[in-house]
Every structure is written in C-alpha cells, then in structure tokens.
Amino acid sequence: MGGTNGDEGESNEWHGDSRPTATLLLDGDSASDAALDVAPESTNVLVVSVSRSVREVIEEWRRRAGTLPATLGVITYAEFDRSASAASSGTPSRQSLPGGDVTVTSMSDPGDLRRLGTAITLYLDDWVDADRKTLVYVDALDPFADAGGVETTFQFLHLLVRSVDQSAADVVVRLAPSTTDERTVNTYRPLFDRVVDATATPTLDDDERHALLSNGRRRFVLQSLVDQPTVGLDRLAARLARWENDTDEPTDTQRARAYTALASVHVPRLADAGIVTYDRSAERVRLAADNWSTDRLRRYLAAPLDDDR
After folding, report:
1. What InterPro entries does the database record attribute to this sequence (predicted)?
2. What's the pTM?
C-alpha cells in the first residue's frame, strides 16, 4: 500500500474495493463523517479522536447510521481524567462499556504516537480473524501533528498504513487543509492510496444544478439525506410514497411506484452529478459529503424552485 491515485473531486465509494484502502480526507468539517459509509452489522470500526468523547462518537454513529457497528472501539484523549483504567505507561488498556460491543482506550498525550500505534495494533490483532470488514478512522490528524511534529507524524502514518494493510483493513485519516500548510499536506500524500479533497466544489453549471434540484422527488431525496445522510432505498421509497400520497399508510402499488422512480431515474441522476452515492448491491443511498456540504444543500433546497415532478 502507498502511492496516491491522485485527488478525487468526484463522488467516491471508499469501501467498494476488494483490497484494503488508505484514504487521506482533506476536510475540516465533521459533517463529512457521513462519507464513512459502512454496513454497520458487518464492520468493526475503530475511531481515534483527540477531542471527541465516547458518548459523542456513539451518538454520531447512531444518528447517521441508525445503529452502531458490529464492534466499536474508541481511542480518545477527551476522557483521560475520568478514566480509572487509563495508565500513562505500559500497554494501553481497554474498558468495555455496557449495552453493546463497545470498548474504549483512554490516552493522555497526543504527542506519544508510538503509544497510539500500539493501541491501534491491539485492536487490529483482536479483529484480524473476525469475519467482518475493519475500518480505522482518525477523525483529526492536526492535533497529533501539532503535538508530535510533522516528521514523527509522517513516521506514524507510514506504520499505520502498513499495519492496516497487513490486517486487510481500511483506514481514513482526516486532515484540515485550512489549518495545515500545503507543504505538510504534500508530505503526507504519498502514503495514501487516494486523497479526497472534500473542499472541492462540484462543477455543475446553473442550468444543470437547477434541473437537478427543481424536481420534487429529487428534492425530497436530498432533504431526507440532509436529515439522515445514509438511508436504505426501501425506507426512502416508503417515505416518498407517504409524502406524495399524503398518507401514513401508502399502498403496495404506491410504494412500488416510488421505489421504481427512485431506483431507475432520480437516485442514479443525482449519483451521476456527484451529489449522492448509490450502492446498488446494498440498496443504500448516501449524501456525497466529500462534494456537497449539508449547509450548501440546505441553501439550495430553501430557495424557491419550480417543481417538475
């Protein structure tokens, strides 16, 4: 692994490849967590965060995916003072939380990247034989680089990418370009298979944008994804059928009509434009947060447009 395929401004299915993938996400907006679209029931997820607590990580996953991953691990620096099990030396220890397959490792020093690497490796070793996919997500690289320096962070990333590759896992690392100089960003780029610039603006002219967003069914899809960035096509069709027919109990025919329209016309067109991504095999639709921010979509959806439904 290693060697970027270049920047990707268009929509991406990050976990559609058969081999492990290392992705550098250039974005400072936490809303882009929606782009980490995985099948929760068949994925082990490890979240590494300096600023977010375990509760915040759990609430974010539940809000976006509706449920937690099969196994969720959290390495956090936000709860060290409250964790009785945290130790500043020796092997990083984990604490199981009640009510689900969730474990937490509390850390104290984001500059100690060797210790962080050990904590990540312990999770990967435990999950290597599981019949599930594994995703490691570093939700902000900047605090580690600030504490440990660019060279040390580069070495950490090099070992991280190699470790997840050997474990057949995926890794996504977010870096805020607004607070990181271009030279530093370019230093990290070669370590990753691909670099996704989530700050890039899609190239849609005014006529095409109006045509896409003026249609009632497509506007309904986008409004639904603003509220819940990932949703199954069946559920989306059921919501559309209720809305179109002004009823809480649409008929099977009404639901089928809505499903066919979404699957064959409206969702593919939005996907072609890079506004959503559509996993046909899993029948899941998600907002392409690497291209479109929720705030930007809200502005377009709030504007008066003709309805050509």
Report:
1. DUF7344, DUF7504
2. 0.63
